[in-house]
Amino acid sequence: MDEKITIQQIAEKANVSIATVSRIINHKGPVKESTRQKVLQIMDEYNFQPKTGQGSNRDAKTILVYMPDFQNPFNASAFEGIQKSAQAAGYQVLILQDTQNDYQRLLKHDFVTGIIVLTSSTQSTIIDEVLNRYPVVVCSGVSKYPSVSSVCTDNFSAAKRATEYLISCNRKKVALLNSSPQFNYSQQREAGFRQAMSDAGLPVNESWVVRLSTINFNIAASNMLHLFQQPDYPNAVFAVSDMYAAGTIQAARQAGLRVPEDVAVIGFDNTEICLLTDPPITAVSQPIFELGFQACELLLERIDYPGTGAKQIVLDTELIVRSSTPLNLR
């Protein structure tokens, strides 16, 4: 619509207070998600453009974090790092989940200063949508765009090292519990797993390579229980997430197998889940908080100095050995 509308009229149409509309525009204070969506829809219908400072998105002082899966412990920890950096610089942080209408509406109203993409999906289209309008940084992945900065870990080397550790524990029947190949990290970790097996002269049993579409404890446990109930089952599992590793331990217990005596298990990320299982999980430790913090620092640099070239930061990982794997026999 071309009809002009005021904040007061928006408040009346949405049956909320002017203060609530103001909080939604400025991202200050708690607002129910249903209320926020209702107000944004009215603003969208009337093509309402709020004034932000001098009218430039830089003055908005809001960073948008595209994070489809907030339930993933990795994402929650990385987001804490982003918040720490952003708040120190005086920026607000807004989470955007995987709803296309939602992010297109927000971007249309020019609420944000820059965007951090916290997903490793190779299918994500948000960068295509916003690259020419905002500075963008990818957290926990590498962008296909040379102009986009990123912060990640070396997933290939970390997965290779974890698999080599299982082999060094005299485990030669190693399974891989992986996530969807649409994620860059799952591709890299599978490649590292396969390289370690090849270097050791061990075959990969393709029926033991399990790929799941979501990070979910119950789904992981169900799939691994099926493997453990076969006459020929793996005696080690490299899981690409701690949640998968926890599900694997549950499945082993249901199948009457002991961890690590019958099945050794390694996870990935070293989240708090690793300390909640029995036995505690050996895991590749990623500096998750630091990944988020450094991603935001890169974004702030691009905001303050638009001519700065893209950077790629690769942080180190570490294998934290606990009781889900036997003693290294080498």
From TrEMBL:
Transmembrane segments: none
Keyword DNA-binding attributed: yes
Stored Pfam families: LacI, Peripla_BP_3
HTH lacI-type domain location: 5-58
GO molecular function, one term: transcription cis-regulatory region binding
SUPFAM superfamilies given in the database record: lambda repressor-like DNA-binding domains, Periplasmic binding protein-like I
InterPro entries: HTH_LacI, LacI/GalR-like_sensor, Lambda_DNA-bd_dom_sf, Peripla_BP_I
PANTHER family: HTH-TYPE TRANSCRIPTIONAL REGULATOR GALS, LACI-RELATED TRANSCRIPTIONAL REPRESSOR
Record protein name field: LacI family DNA-binding transcriptional regulator
